[in-house]
Design goal:
Layout (H helix, E strand, L loop, with lengths): L2 H7 L8 E8 L2 E6 L4 H18 L4 H17 L6 H31 L5 H10 L2 H15 L5 H9 L7 H20 L5 H16 L8 H13 L2 H6 L6 E4 L5 E10 L5 E7 L11 E7 L5 E6 L4 E6 L5 E5 L11 E6 L2 E6 L2 E8 L4 E7 L13 E4 L6
Antiparallel strand pairs: 1-2, 3-14, 4-5, 5-9, 5-13, 6-7, 7-8, 7-10, 8-9, 10-11, 11-12, 12-13
Helix pairs in contact: 1-2, 2-3, 2-4, 3-4, 4-6, 6-8, 7-8, 7-9, 8-10
Length: about 400
């Protein structure tokens, strides 16, 4: 006879109404009597747990079913402080919880290491247990994989936890990003690529339509994480855009409104303006991730008329704005680095810099060679700032 059935037959139960108890192990219906004493019921739970550990230790569904029923028993019939029975019940509940957490965290960690899709399993976790245990599972899974996966890749993998239009998985994805960033901080690590990707995902979360429905506590924790990122990255990914001042003279990049550029008459000229620290709507820029690599590749768009910046190789690698059409991958895609409070924009072996004067009030902006050292000269460092609001 099956071990679990033998165990249950040894437990004295008084006559009364039958109450089914999950989980159903190999189609054996577990029952206890409503009129059984709390001590007898607790003995049943101990017997079931012993059988699961013996024969089904890796069966997540069975462990989860027992954990769920124990939770109901502790909630409705005993309190942790109600003598030896209550204390024993809560100790058993915590023991089962630790085992369930280990099973779920290990499975999630294995999938992350194998680069498998985690969306379906993430939804299973989120729907199976309470939020506190979900958070615990995420923390332990991330601890398991932290030294085995590139951190910037982990940021991208954990985004997969969100299933389109599912609020529970959206919150779980946020919890996962918080757990990863918390681990990063506790290890005192330093990875520019990781911080770029975290800043990017924080921006996407904040601008997502579901973010408004996230509970205030979780929002507060995400906002606190955002404030611990380098401020320069927060500005780079700001959905409202930013303006750029050259570090060398604090002149700002702007797109002209009327000056056509000789690019098939399909461009507008771009300069810096000599007035120090001045910004207006002609300088508002947004950065968009074009390709998701360890460090993302970006396109840059002048927001006044939604024109993308491009580099014209035939004109000394001058920066201009494309009035229509799609930006070219070779001339409109930038890698971006940062040093302290400044951004550095590059294409191939060229770096975006404030160049020679065009006239008394404007300066050319060009891609220049020989600035691949870090940091480059001040003329090739750009300070992102909030643009002056339109009047």
């Amino acid at each position: 006879m099956h071990l679990l059935l033998q165990l249950l037959l040894c437990i004295p139960l008084v006559v009364g109404e039958v109450l089914p108890l999950q989980p159903d192990l190999d189609n054996i219906q577990m029952t206890i009597r409503r009129s059984a004493s709390r001590g007898d019921k607790l003995q049943v739970f101990h017997s079931i747990w012993g059988a699961i550990r013996s024969d089904f230790a890796t069966d997540t569904d069975k462990v989860k079913g027992l954990y769920s029923q124990l939770g109901i028993f502790v909630r409705d019939e005993v309190q942790c402080s109600s003598g030896s029975t209550g204390q024993s019940a809560c100790e058993l509940q915590q023991e089962v919880r630790r085992h369930l957490r280990s099973l779920m965290a290990q499975r999630l960690a294995n999938m992350l290491n194998a680069e498998e899709s985690i969306q379906t399993y993430g939804m299973y976790i989120a729907a199976s247990v309470e939020p506190a245990l979900v958070r615990d599972i995420l923390v332990h899974a991330i601890e398991d994989v932290y030294f085995h996966r590139p951190l910037e890749k982990l940021v991208q993998q954990l985004e997969q936890l969100y299933a389109d239009r599912d609020e529970v998985s959206f919150r779980m994805m946020i919890e996962a990003q918080l757990a990863l960033f918390g681990r990063y901080q506790s290890m005192h690590d330093n990875s520019e690529a990781f911080l770029f990707n975290v800043a990017h995902v924080v921006s996407k979360i904040r601008s997502h339509h579901m973010y408004a429905s996230v509970d205030a506590g979780l929002q507060k924790r995400l906002e606190a994480m955002g404030k611990r990122l380098p401020p320069v990255l927060g500005l780079l990914f700001d959905p409202q855009g930013f303006c750029l001042l050259s570090r060398s003279d604090r002149e700002y990049i702007y797109t002209t409104i009327t000056d056509d550029w000789n690019y098939g008459l399909n461009g507008r000229q771009v300069f810096t303006w000599q007035k120090k620290n001045f910004t207006d709507s002609a300088g508002q820029i947004r950065a968009f991730v074009q390709e998701q690599h360890a460090t993302p590749l970006f396109t840059l768009r002048s927001e006044l008329f939604k024109w993308y910046y491009f580099v014209d190789p035939s004109e000394g690698n001058r920066l201009a704005a494309l009035r229509s059409g799609s930006p070219s991958s070779s001339t409109s895609t930038w890698s971006i680095a940062y040093v302290e409070d400044a951004l550095i924009f590059r294409q191939r072996e060229l770096t975006l810099c404030a160049a020679e004067k065009f006239d008394d009030v404007r300066r050319l902006v060009k891609m220049l060679p020989g600035q691949m050292h870090t940091p480059p000269s001040d003329a090739c460092q750009w300070l992102p700032v909030a643009c002056a609001p339109p009047k």
